[in-house]
Amino acid sequence: MDKGASLVEISPVAADLDLRELKEVVTKITSSKTMYYLNPQATPIFHHIDAILKPIYTSSKVDQLRLLQSLSTGGNVRSMLLVHALFYGHNTVVDYLLRHFTYTTTSPLDLAGAYGRHDMFAFIKRVRPSMKATSNALDYAAGNGHLNMVWHLHSTGHT
């Protein structure tokens, strides 16, 4: 994609179709009473979300994500984008989301702990040094069996 191209030139029809499908899938997940974000790989439909988002992330990086975000008004979609990006290690997407949106229900650092993602935890601390993990990070990591992450959180004072 030409760096000077406007966001409107990024196949809005295809993005709109992907967005509608994404919203439907996210609604299915978030309408359940389970805390899908603590162990997303255990939610079978999460893999469907990956199939929708992976091509968007790789096609034109953040520009495509901006288009997706501009079409999205629901916090559930933004939250799912963060969960997905953290889980799969999409640094560019995490950075964009943290710069443009506030997440108040669960700390992104807690989610990185839940997924055992040392790399994402370190990345978030590097780009958002003021962000804090809660004691939930340790609980979530232990609950998902990420003992190396538990050790890391404990040894760095995130208890």
How is this structure best described in words?
- This protein folds into two domains: 11-101; 106-159, no CATH class.
- Residues 1-17 have low confidence and may be disordered.
- It has 159 residues and is an all-alpha fold.
- The protein has eight helices and no strands.
- It has helices at 12-31, 44-71, 75-88, 91-100, 108-114, 118-127, 136-143, 147-155.
- The longest helix has 28 residues, at 44-71.
Short description:
The protein has 159 residues and is mainly alpha-helical.
* Count of helix runs: 8
Uncertain spans: 1-17
The CA-CA distance between the termini, in Å, is 45 Å
Shape: globular
Largest sheet: none
Number of E-type strands: 0
- Binned strand content: under 5%
Question: What is the typical, i.e. mean, pLDDT?
Answer: 75
The total number of structural domains is 2
Helix content: 55-70%
